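WARN no homologs supplied; continuing
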Amino acid sequence: MNKNRRISENPPEKTGLFRTDSPAAKIALLGLLTALAVIMGYIEHRIPLPLPVPGIKLGLCNIVIVFVLYRFGFLRALTVSIIRILVIGFLFGSPVSMFYGFFGALLSLSGMALLMRSGRFSVIGVSAGGGALHSIGQIGAAAILTAGTGIFRYLPVLLLAGEFCGALIGLIDRTVLKRLGKQRNEGII
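OK structure emitted
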């Protein structure tokens, strides 16, 4: 049997470790990714950053969210993000932290989806943009809750931190997507 015939008989998406050609397999994989995002959120919650500006976080959960956005699309990434915000909020946060999370995630994911669809940005650029938009969304949520504009003085620092952390997350995701793409083509995933 020649190699081309074998590949056509057993395409990678049907022979790999994680078959994602069925709805049940996609749900299971998205469930695992959601759990991973929650675990990363817990780890991040347990590691306080000694910074003078409140609200700066590494965004470890976003490694999973960006991966889901690229691999499964906007709606599934939004679903994973909403579930993650609810679980982390109920376990470690408060209704206020969930409110901030929803605002940041919705703005961030919407912007990343648009940047990704434009085709003009790499994964790093999309993720960096998402980091900045997440900061804008959370500052907007804080302004609504506090009914004041003083919170906007934190925006420049949060934007820089969001861009930097988002670029790091994008670098990780670029590596993961590249490696998993090769494995998918080889029938491993």
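The chain has eight helices and no strands.
OK
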